[in-house]
Amino acid sequence: MPSLSTVKASNASYASHLLQSASTPVAIFIGGTAGIGEATVKALANYLHGNVHVILVGRTREPGERVLRELVKPSPSPGEKQDIGVIREFIPCDVSLMSSVDKMCLEITKLLESRLKTTAPPKINYIFFSANHSNLWGGHRWTEEGIDKQLAVRYYHRFKTTFKLMPLLRNAKDKGEDARVVSILASGITWWFDEDDFGFKKSSGLGLVLKGVNTNMVAAVYNDLMVESFADHNPGISFTNSMPGMVSTDNALHAFTIPFRAHWILKPLELFFFWIWILIFIKPEDSAQYHLYDLFQADEGREPERSGGEKKGKFYRRSRFGDDLGYRYHRKDQEVLKRRFWEHTTKVTELVE
Ligand SMILES: NC(=O)c1ccc[n+]([C@@H]2O[C@H](COP(=O)([O-])OP(=O)(O)OC[C@H]3O[C@@H](n4cnc5c(N)ncnc54)[C@H](OP(=O)(O)O)[C@@H]3O)[C@@H](O)[C@H]2O)c1
């Protein structure tokens, strides 16, 4: 378990290695307009002295453009890379809708094709997912496309986006550069699910009452399966599911204090909660250091590992302190489960292989 200072030193060292490269990395942040995503994109830009192309995706333009404005701007000094006019773009998208995700991926591809003409073919080095939607007990759980909204935001759009942008990740890999995907959700969790109903469409009775809790939690398992399956199919690219733990983002504070707002008599408990908050939650800025560590330590395995004669990519499942959980929680029938789940997901997200 590396300490925060070890993580920062490691990040600084990796960033200085990136700054030696002639190429400027391209990073896509889906859900980077607030919380952990915002803190992570800012930390990345700080380490790279602004020398990074950034595309942010979220539903609302104003916070997206504010975050982009606040990113460190490239300031070349003697011996450092020249200011090459980095990309700072916001793309609005409600990622709970798969049709919008299609449009967003097309927009990202076209933008990179037009702005990175000199380094053609266009590439993506890093994709970060951190869009969040939690609805444990409320109603209105289905999107207009008939998908559970928590699963759409916490899982399906992450699969679809990664799948659609894979050619650009491959371009980065083919140039010998980093090609890495990090999904910030939760890893190493065991949760029940029905293998004949991965989308939780048949829930009834108590299952229906608990559906919000189930789809919230099971998304962690689904992200673990996702990173492993993508790695199986994509040698030379790395995929990470990263656990943030308890992070004091504005939205997390809001969600955790809802019960105290139900009645004035509960108000004093809110004060008590704030003490717990200070003791156990970590700041988004510190969380961002761990997620960058997860990214920078996600070696793609340039000499692909051989398993049963097959070439595979690398996957990582990181604890909140950056430890790799490896094959922990693997099931005996993991390969069958992965195949069934892949088929389910490509069907729901309307992807053709
Ligand atoms: N904070 C924690 O304690 C904690 C704990 C465990 C796991 N996590 C996981 O860590 C990740 C980041 O959490 P966070 O606390 O930083 O989240 P957050 O502060 O709630 O940030 C959410 C981000 O998601 C975007 N977003 C939400 N719904 C969206 C939608 N339908 N389409 C597009 N963007 C959407 C928001 O942007 P717009 O509003 O502009 O759309 C915002 O940028 C999430 O995956 C979360 O599940 C967090």
TrEMBL record:
Keywords: Oxidoreductase
UniProt protein name: NAD(P)-binding protein
Domain of life: Eukaryota
Protease recorded as keyword: no
InterPro entries membership: NAD(P)-bd_dom_sf, Sec_Metab_Biosynth_Oxidored
A GO molecular-function descriptor: oxidoreductase activity
